[in-house]
Amino acid sequence: MAEQFTEVDRLRETLLESLEKADKRQEDISREDVLSRIENVIQTIVISVSKGEAPVLKVMNRSSWTNVRFQKSVGLVLKADVSLMAIRCDCPSSATKFALILKLLSVIYKLVQSDSYATKRDIYYNDVQLFGSQRTLDFIVDDVSCLLKVPRRSLHVLATSKGFISGDLCYLEEDGTKVDCNSSSAATPVSSNVNGIRNIVSSAKFILIVEKDATLQRLLDDDFCTRLSPCIIITGKGMPDVNSRLMVRKLWDELHVPVFALVDADPHGIEIMCIYKYGSMSMAFEAHSLTVPSVLWLGLLPSDIQRYRVPEESIIPFSQADESKINSLRNRTYIACQPAWEREVQTMQRLKQKAEIQSLASIAPHFLTRVYLPNKLRYGGWI
């Protein structure tokens, strides 16, 4: 088995040698500091009211590419001079948002003060009429994190996870619950409090991020994690949630093993992989805690479609949305700085076709787990 994964072992040695040069995670902020920052915001509002002025909150514009820059060792990070949006209480277009931020600051203050936690879903259902939708609350939580310059995990507000994980992994939750992810038939939900995980035990040689839940289940059905090599597989079920990204980052920090991505050969799959690797524009303020810049593209590569002669009936022609997305990706610095990635994106754009991971089953039922992945891992077929 050791011979079979020579290239993976070599890669792991290279990663270990470069760990000292890697950027460190953003440190947690103390409870006292979080409380102090909330108090400072409220104090500023009170002072404005006492002067007869309309209070204003200034929050970073998280939907502007002009506020982020690409740093190869981290990913998408904030620029030093980010543009801010003024949220006024006396302006009809922003008064509701101003009120929601104050409400959430009140909730967070109580949670941090009492050293307790709540999920975003709990907070939403405690006042459905006020927040209007879960999506609105989600945005407000991120805005508050930016406003206070505090990592989201320090706000004591947890997100309900949508991701799943399986493989050679055991750990303890913050409350002492032991979690064993070694089941060969069912995956384990990713923790809602990744930061509280401790006592991680694993003999995994690598971590495999898969785009879809269906692919993860296929790997489990074929006993991939034990039959092939000790490993950990994780999915964010499409566009990853923060907890799935935190989990990949935490495992990378703890285990120091290679991290591979298995996504569809389409623009959407490439973007998902880039979010794990380099982060997203809207969460650039937490890049140091969420990104894993060493993620490697294992497949499905656009060039694999021809290399493995994927049947024509399994290949999908580009849509207008695909064209727009691929053009957007090609303009991003993190694609342009990697010649091998850029060549694959150019291949996809030239051929104007895409294929899902499941298309490999049209070659042979077990082609993915018995041929494609073993060969990729044995001979270093990643970029």
Automatic annotation (TrEMBL):
Q: What is its EC number?
A: 5.6.2.2
The catalysed reaction is: ATP-dependent breakage, passage and rejoining of double-stranded DNA
Q: Which UniProt keywords apply?
A: DNA-binding, Isomerase, Magnesium, Metal-binding, Nucleotide-binding, Nucleus, Topoisomerase
Q: Which InterPro entries match?
A: Meiotic_Spo11 (IPR013048), Spo11/TopoVI_A (IPR002815), Spo11/TopoVI_A_N (IPR013049), Spo11/TopoVI_A_sf (IPR036078), TOPRIM_Topo6A/Spo11 (IPR034136), WH-like_DNA-bd_sf (IPR036388)
* Short name of any one Pfam family annotated for the protein: TP6A_N
- The superkingdom of the source organism is Eukaryota
Q: Which residues form the signal peptide?
A: none
Q: Which residues form the Topoisomerase 6 subunit A/Spo11 TOPRIM domain?
A: 206-377
The answer, when asked if Isomerase is one of the entry's keywords, is yes
Q: Which residues form the Spo11/DNA topoisomerase VI subunit A N-terminal domain?
A: 97-157
Q: Which residues form the active site?
A: Y125 (o-(5'-phospho-dna)-tyrosine intermediate)
Q: Where in the cell is it found?
A: Nucleus
Give an example GO molecular function: DNA binding
Family the UniProt entry places it in:
Belongs to the TOP6A family.
Identify this protein by name: DNA topoisomerase (ATP-hydrolyzing)
